[in-house]
Amino acid sequence: MKTISFTTSQFVTIDYELASPVYRAVAAFLDVVFLLIYLLIASYFISSNLLDLDMNSFQNRWSLLSIFLLRLPWLLYSPVIEYLTNGRSLGKLIMGIRVVKSNGETAGLREYFTRWIFRIVDIWVGGFGFLALLVAGTTEKRQRIGDIMADTVVIKVKDTQIYSLRDVLSIKNSDNHVPTYPNVIRFSDEDMLLIKNTILRVQRYPNQSNKDFAIQLADETARLIGLAETPPKRMEFLKMVLQDYVVLTR
């Protein structure tokens, strides 16, 4: 499982799982299915409204309607709908994935159209999607050529790692809990969210960089609440600080 880390404006680092090539291929297939259904309905609508016209009017009206109701939606479906829905086509929505910029920000119209233009290479020139699957499966951020050129990535968003204050308050119901570190009231909600996200990151991704950050965070937390030294079990210390904050501030 490959992940990517984004840092919020509150300096909280959040990990997202990168969408696999299989997820992206299924989402693309679903988009094609939806488009075909739309085109069938639109074609029937056009035909039923042109039956009573003479030949010249029929040809002129058919040309205009086919451009606006058939050709343009087929061509522009992907960039337009992703722009309007912040990176989710219908297929991506069902699969729980989303296009974002590689720094975590919402992509703009330029990024969506860049990805769309390079579909010609990724999908049509590249063996009906084989090249896109190959490149996305081998690059570090699972990017196809269009993503690389637009500086975008596709992430899974069903299991989002954004936590709210409600998550902090629901950690534990501790009506009889006696706080160990009363000085935690000096912290803010954002500080506690940082501590909680750090704990969850270490639990989910116990690599050395996450552990080192948790150690530094525990040392700084201990210093700020006036402890002479950090308790040896730093993760338990951070959990206790979090629990004390909930009890003292709710």
TrEMBL record:
**GO cellular component terms listed in the entry, alphabetical order:** membrane
Pfam families, per database record: RDD
State which residue ranges cross the membrane: 22-41, 62-81, 116-136
Give the principal location in a single coarse category: membrane
> How does this protein sit in the membrane?
Multi-pass membrane protein
* The RDD domain, residue ranges: 19-150
Q: Which InterPro entries match?
A: RDD
Location of this chain's protein in the cell:
Membrane
Q: Which UniProt keywords are present, listed alphabetically?
A: Membrane, Transmembrane, Transmembrane helix
Cross-referenced PANTHER family: SLR0254 PROTEIN (PTHR38480:SF1)
The identity of this protein, by name, is: RDD family protein
Q: Which organism is it from?
A: Fluviicola chungangensis
Q: What is the lineage of its organism?
A: Bacteria, Pseudomonadati, Bacteroidota, Flavobacteriia, Flavobacteriales
